[in-house]
Amino acid sequence: MRDELIADVRILGAEIGERNMARYSQLNAAADFIENSFSRAGLHPRRDTYDLHGRACHNIEAEIRGARSEILLIGAHYDSVFGSPGANDNGSGVAAMLALARRFARTSSQTHAALRGVCERGAALFSE
Length: 128
Known about the structure:
41% of the residues lie in helices and 22% in strands. By secondary structure, the chain is of the alpha+beta class.
């Protein structure tokens, strides 16, 4: 898991870098990376798109059904502050959320509560 976390933080912080409304293409690249990561884990991500200052922004959601109705929520936002590559704020949180999504996707038949992952521009969530 350590190598997986490092790789995801490296992609978000070094390859994509600063991602916010001033770096709109990088913001979209981060959303694409998260959506593709959910898909590669065998999940079916959904984009919730909204308009912010005339530009489309996206929350990305994926869900793993559980045996019970309880929901566990785990969160991290995927945008970064201005002037920062966002490795710690909050690439590390997104990497942790993706690692958990990958693990839970592999063991979904053993999951008691529902898991829902939502990566938001400004905040990201995950739930069981």
